[in-house]
Amino acid sequence: MEGTNPVNKKLAAALSGGAVLVLALSGCGGDDNEKLDAWAKEVCDAVQPQAKKIETANAAIQKETSDNSTPEEVQKTDSKAFQDMSDAYKAIGAAVDKAGAPNVENGEKKQKNAVKELNGISASYASLKKQVDELDTKDQAKFADGLKDVAAELNKLSQSGNDALKELEEGEVGVAMAKQPTCKSASASASQSAAAS
Questions:
Q1: Is the pTM of this model over 0.70?
Q2: Mean pLDDT of 58-73
Q3: Residue 47 burial by CB count (10 A; 0-12/13-18/19+): exposed, middle or buried?
Q4: How buried is 89 (Cβ within 10 angstroms: 0-12 exposed, 13-18 middle, 19+ buried)?
Q5: What single-letter DSSP state applies at residue 160?
């Protein structure tokens, strides 16, 4: 099974990179925008359980890379992890949508862009799940090649499309989110996952 392990390691590294994008909620200082603080609390409280789900999916893929797993085991684990990631990003998108526009300049545009992007990331993970499900586990060489393609897609996904999220989290919004304990813990766990890969 050595053939698929290095590829799956790449997969795990790329995956944790993607998870951190959404959850790198940082900033410092304070403001007295109560509406914005309430908005940040609503979003952060909704993000935390999804961040845990992303972290668990990530850990499952990491574990599969360190074991001498069969293609069937790798396929099953990766498929479930991608489904969980897809669900988590969709839920974060729904939370940002439900919270409405943050009380900042261009808040509505930022919010709409972020929701669109989160839903796009969710769809991409769903499509990766389908790709993994269709891999031929009977032929190890073919399976390893297929996993390489998945890792490449995943890498693209983790590198692209975080602009709207960065835009949403810049300035006052980022400061308000950084003050929320639930965002702090989501960010810390995501950073640990990334460091572990």
A1: yes
A2: 82
A3: buried
A4: buried
A5: S
Q: How many helices (H) and strands (E) does the chain have?
A: 8, 0
- Tell me the C-alpha distance between 2 and 184, whole Å: 38
**Residues 15, 61 contacting (CB under 8 angstroms):** yes
What is the torsion angle, in degrees rounded to the nearest 10, for the CA atoms of residue 105, residue 109, residue 113 and residue 118?
70
Q: For the beta carbon of residue 169, count every other beta carbon within 10 angstroms.
A: 25
Residues of the chain by 3-state class (helix, strand, coil), percent to 5: 80, 0, 20
Q: 10 Å Cβ neighbour count for 68? A: 9
Please give the radius of gyration of the chain, using alpha carbons only, rounded to the nearest integer. 18
Question: Which has the closest alpha carbon to 58: 158, 142, 133, 140?
Answer: 158
DSSP structural state of residue 134: T
Taking the CA of residue 113 as centre, how many other CA atoms within 13 Å lie in the half-sphere pointing to its CB?
Answer: 15
Q: Mean pLDDT over residues 168-185, rounded?
A: 84
Average pLDDT (51-72) is 83
Average pLDDT, the chain: 80
Residue 25 has pLDDT above 50, yes or no: no
Q: Find the length of the chain.
A: 197
